[in-house]
Amino acid sequence: MIEINNIYNIDCLELMYNLSEKYVDLVITSPPYHTETKRKGGASDIGKYDVYKDLKTEGEYIDWTIEIFKGYDKIIKENRVVIYNFSYSVENPTLPYKLVSKVVENTNWELADTIFWKKPNSIPHPASYNRLNRVFEFVWIFARKSEIKTFKMFKNIVKISKTGQKYYEVIDNFIEAKNNDGPNDLNKATFSTDLVTKLIDIYGTAGDLIYDSFCGIGTTVLGAIEKDCNFLGSEISFKQCELAREKIQSKLSILSGK
Question: Are 201 and 169 in contact (CB under 8 A)?
Answer without folding.
Answer: no
